[in-house]
């Protein structure tokens, strides 16, 4: 699935639907990885593996995912992701599933 198709599929998913774990895992590895490094150990953006994110609560990380970080290259994903999808990604990153 192309990046554009993946983003369109995520945006078109009903807000109340259960997050699509496979699509979100691809999003993390491809889209997040394009800035945070393909192994998520850092690149343009910082390391986003579990051990580097230990200072975040899930809700705070979800906010960063949805709203971005002003003044940095971290964009807001709120136009493309639901809160449930951002919560899934935050949990995925905080619990070391991305290692």
Give a short synopsis of this structure.
With 99 residues, the protein is an all-alpha fold. It has four helices and no strands.
Task: Walk me through what this model shows.
The chain is an all-alpha fold. The protein has a single domain (3-12, 21-94), classed as Cytochrome Bc1 Complex, Chain D, domain 2 (Orthogonal Bundle), CATH 1.10.760. It is 48% helix and 0% strand. The protein has 4 helices and no strands. The longest helix is centred in the first third of the chain and has 16 residues, at 21-36. The chain is globular, with a radius of gyration of 12 Å. The two termini are 23 Å apart.
Task: Sum up the structure in keywords.
single chain; 99 residues; mainly alpha; Cytochrome Bc1 Complex, Chain D, domain 2; 4 helices
Q: What's the gyration radius in Å?
A: 12 Å
Largest sheet descriptor: none
The dominant shape is globular
What is the percent of helical residues?
40-55%
Query: Counting H and I runs of at least 4 residues, what is the number of helices?
Result: 4
Helix and strand sequence: HHHH
**Structural class given helices, strands, pairing?**
mainly alpha
Sequence-ordered SSE layout with sheet pairings:
Elements: H1 3-12, H2 21-36, H3 58-67, H4 83-94
């Amino acid at each position: 699935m192309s990046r554009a198709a993946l983003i369109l599929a995520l945006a078109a998913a009903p807000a109340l639907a259960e997050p699509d774990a496979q699509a979100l895992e691809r999003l993390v590895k491809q889209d997040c990885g394009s800035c945070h490094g393909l192994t998520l150990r850092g690149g343009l953006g910082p390391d986003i593996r579990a051990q580097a994110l230990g200072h975040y609560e899930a809700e705070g990380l979800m906010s960063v995912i949805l709203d971005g970080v002003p003044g940095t290259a971290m964009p807001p994903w709120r136009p493309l992701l639901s809160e449930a999808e951002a919560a899934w990604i935050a949990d995925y990153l905080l619990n070391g599933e991305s290692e």
